[in-house]
Design a protein that fits this description.
By secondary structure, the chain is α+β, with helices and mostly antiparallel strands. Helix content is 30%, strand content 33%. α1 packs antiparallel against α2.
Length: 360
């Protein structure tokens, strides 16, 4: 279309030129006033063409701008219609100032301090049933708050809790973890945010996929049992599938499907899948730590998280392989003593009750 318009403009210019040339040939027989009038006529013709073209361009630009605005509005509405997410990862940025050694539940517009190993169960109305598990309750006084508000459980080191959601899904929350979730799930999806470690037994519901979000990946399921470990201080996160099937999508949009007894390990360099004994990765919810194949440094770090006690060891001890099984219901000093005896190590405690491990 632009090519045809260019051709028309060129024809108009040539016609005007020929017209002027005729006038020039007759210049000897006419006075200078006629020549100037003739040139003015040529200019007027060209100017008329130029203005007509500008008007068309302006009209086209206005239409295009209107279409762009309408299109942008439509895309915005379409995206807002699609974005039905219950929870956003931005919620992790809001870290409330809390006691470092108490389980805190934010629900019903209140901040509640819970007992260790509490069991929280949500009713179909989105209200948590707590019985005698609340130690202290502090009203938050949020405006326009309702049962669909976002709830949050913060479990410090040395503590554990379990939660049953209103859909029947059960979640075990390990020490040093944080979970954000709605009091009631949406009609088409169930979403939570995890920072730390949880074990989930998801109630099957084909119409509502269950989605677990972390800073490094998402897990999507319909009904299954799996473990997620995604502590912010760890360089590697993992998902272990016990039963069913899950899809794991990392931040670079890479998707992986896990089958039972598989683990996906995720870090900044990428991810890989391997077959594992799932009991090793889920026995923490039963207060057991399986040690086969672990290094001493990793074991002591996990014990520190579980008991909420600082446990440190020499660098030369960190890479000693450890095997066996630990009962985490025992006192931390007793568990550490068992490890030290088996590895020919010794330990002391300082004035802060930190456990210091070294070689004999």
């Amino acid at each position: 279309m632009s090519r045809e318009r260019d051709i028309q403009d060129k024809d108009s210019f040539f016609q005007a030129g020929r017209y002027l040339l005729k006038k020039v040939h007759k210049a000897e027989s006419v006075d200078s006033k006629d020549v100037l009038l003739s040139w003015k006529e040529v200019e007027n013709r060209l100017e008329s063409k130029r203005l007509q073209r500008l008007r068309i361009c302006y009209a086209f630009s206005a239409v295009a701008a209107s279409i762009a605005v309408l299109l942008a509005m439509g895309i915005g509405l379409w995206q807002s219609g699609r974005d039905e997410s219950s929870v956003s990862l931005s919620l992790l940025e809001d870290v409330p100032a809390l006691p470092v050694d108490e389980v805190i539940l934010f629900a019903r517009n209140n901040r509640m301090q819970l007992r260790d190993e509490s069991s929280v169960k949500y009713g179909t109305d989105g209200q948590p049933e707590l019985d005698d598990q609340v130690i202290k309750e502090i009203p938050e006084h949020k405006k326009d708050a309702g049962i669909n508000d976002i709830n949050q459980i913060i479990v410090p080191k040395g503590r554990k809790v379990d939660i049953t959601f209103s859909d029947g899904t059960k979640m075990y929350v390990n020490a040093g973890s944080r979970v954000i979730y709605p009091a009631l799930f949406k009609d088409d999806r169930r979403e939570i945010i995890v920072e730390g470690e949880v074990y989930l037994d998801v109630k099957k519901d084909p119409s509502r996929p269950f989605i677990v979000k972390t800073k490094g990946f998402e897990v999507k399921v319909l009904g299954t049992q799996f473990n997620i470990c995604a502590y912010k201080e760890d360089t590697t996160a993992s998902v272990v599938l016990v039963d069913g099937k899950v899809e794991v999508e990392t931040t670079n949009k890479k998707k992986s499907i896990l089958s039972p007894n598989q683990l996906i390990s995720i870090n900044d360099e990428g991810s890989y899948i391997k077959n594992v004994d799932v009991f090793e990765y889920i026995c923490w919810k039963d207060n057991i730590m399986l040690l086969d194949g672990r290094m001493a440094g990793d074991v002591f770090e996990r014990l520190s998280r579980h008991y909420g006690r600082r446990i440190v060891c020499d660098k030369q001890i960190e890479n000693i392989p450890v095997s066996g099984k630990l009962d985490l219901r025992e006192k931390p000093e007793d568990v550490v003593n068992i490890l030290c005896l088996s590895l020919y190590l010794t330990y002391t405690m300082n004035e802060n009750k930190d456990i210091i491990i070294s070689k004999k």
